[in-house]
């Protein structure tokens, strides 16, 4: 199976991205509904296979792109895959979203026996490397493909447990820093893997939400590692990172502005117009149609209205705009809802001029 340009578009996603980067006219704003396990229900591919079988991973992505023509394909290893490569356990239900089992890092003394993930040899990461190879061969000339590497703080929460990690920030901060160093080096190895296949990098760090940790914690425990990773990814791949942050992030915009970003994707609770005018002076903005109230439960008219409203606000971003959902759409979202989202993106941003 090979990717083909979507018949409703004048440009392929690769052509559109290049036009934007070169300051040329483009047919519409890039549009990326975050779909995650929705792809399983849509394709009939099981959750386990979607995360473990490289052929099934590639098949799912290609079938979803064939239907919707979104502007990016994103595969793992994600937070989950890297955590598993470091020894964590996850539960993969027959339907629904996988979730963490018992935390791996029950005692920080365990760090002494742990090494960063080597993406060249780790069997868990090699699953995603094979999927990357298949997708770049089938779709790389049509649509950008990115490898998600999660976020360092969220990975730490998956290894230690969220509540314990938050407590440890006060009780044993040096051990937290050692954990973050191990994780960051593991992520850098995954970036090396992505660069080998010509992929870009995506990141999402939901536990680093400043509504949960606060801006001071973000500055000390999140910013240095995320800056290191975004700089490294740009150096290794030649492509800037797509970063998603959950929650109301206004208090950390000064940090987000310093990353090498293809876009900063914002939660639907963020005022997109404010973000476009403020943060959009420094980095491209993405967002932020409500994934539940609008994408899952909304009418077709409500989806179209939300898309038009987001484009109207987002296009004010000086550094550029991508239409996205505010987070992953629920896996039970009807495919027709995504059709409306993409059709509206084409309708409300046709023939764009810079």
Describe this structure in words.
One of its GO terms (molecular function) is uroporphyrinogen decarboxylase activity. This is Uroporphyrinogen decarboxylase family protein. By secondary structure, this protein is of the alpha/beta class. It has a single domain, classed as TIM Barrel. The chain is 50% helix and 11% strand. The strands form two sheets. Strands 1-10-9-8-7-6-5-2 form an eight-stranded parallel sheet. A two-stranded antiparallel ribbon has the order 3-4. Helix 12 links the parallel strand 7 and strand 8.
Biggest sheet, strands in spatial order? 1-10-9-8-7-6-5-2
Provide the domain count: 1
Sheet bearing the most strands, described?
8 strands, parallel
Radius of gyration from CA coordinates? 19 Å
CATH class: Alpha Beta
**Based on DSSP secondary structure assignment, what is the total number of beta strands?**
10
SSE order? HEHHHEHEEHEHHHEHHEHEHEHHEH
Q: β content, as a range?
A: 5-15%
Indicate the low-confidence ranges by residue numbers.
none
Distance between the termini: 35 Å
CATH architecture: Alpha-Beta Barrel
Counting DSSP H or I runs of 4 or more residues, the number of helices is: 16
The overall pLDDT average reads 96
The helix content, as a percent range, equals: 40-55%
Structural class of the secondary elements? alpha/beta
- Named CATH topology: TIM Barrel
Shape: globular
């Amino acid at each position: 199976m090979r990717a083909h340009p979507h018949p409703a578009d004048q440009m392929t996603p690769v052509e559109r991205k290049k036009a934007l980067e070169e300051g040329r006219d483009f047919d519409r704003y890039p549009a990326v509904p975050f779909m995650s396990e929705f792809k399983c229900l849509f394709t009939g591919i099981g959750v386990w296979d979607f995360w473990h079988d490289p052929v099934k991973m590639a098949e799912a992505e290609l079938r979803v792109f064939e239907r919707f023509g979104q502007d990016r394909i994103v595969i793992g290893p994600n937070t989950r895959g890297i955590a598993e490569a470091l020894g964590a356990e996850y539960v993969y239900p027959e339907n629904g979203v996988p979730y963490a089992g018992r935390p791996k890092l029950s005692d920080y003394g365990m760090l002494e026996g742990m090494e960063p993930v080597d993406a060249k040899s780790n069997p868990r990461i090699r699953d995603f490397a094979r999927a990357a190879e298949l997708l770049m061969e089938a779709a790389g000339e049509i649509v950008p493909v990115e490898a998600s590497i999660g976020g360092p703080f969220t990975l730490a929460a998956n290894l230690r447990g969220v509540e314990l990690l938050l407590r440890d920030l006060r009780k044993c901060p040096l051990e937290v820093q050692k954990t973050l160093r191990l994780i960051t080096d593991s992520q850098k190895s995954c970036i090396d893997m992505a660069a080998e296949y010509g992929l870009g990098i995506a990141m999402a760090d939901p536990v680093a939400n400043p509504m949960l940790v606060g801006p001071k914690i973000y500055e000390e425990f999140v910013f240095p590692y995320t800056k290191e990773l975004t700089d490294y990814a740009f150096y290794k791949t030649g492509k800037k990172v797509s970063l998603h942050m959950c929650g109301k992030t206004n208090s950390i915009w000064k940090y987000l502005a310093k990353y090498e970003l293809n876009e900063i994707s914002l939660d639907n609770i963020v005022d997109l117009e404010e973000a476009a005018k403020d943060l959009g002076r420094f980095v491209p903005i993405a967002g932020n149609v409500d994934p539940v109230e609008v994408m899952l439960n909304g009418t077709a008219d409500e989806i179209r209205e939300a898309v038009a409203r987001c484009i109207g606000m987002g296009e004010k971003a000086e550094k550029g705009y991508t239409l996205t959902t505010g987070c992953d759409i629920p896996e039970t979202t009807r495919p027709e809802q995504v059709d409306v989202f993409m059709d509206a993106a084409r309708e409300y941003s046709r023939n764009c001029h810079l």
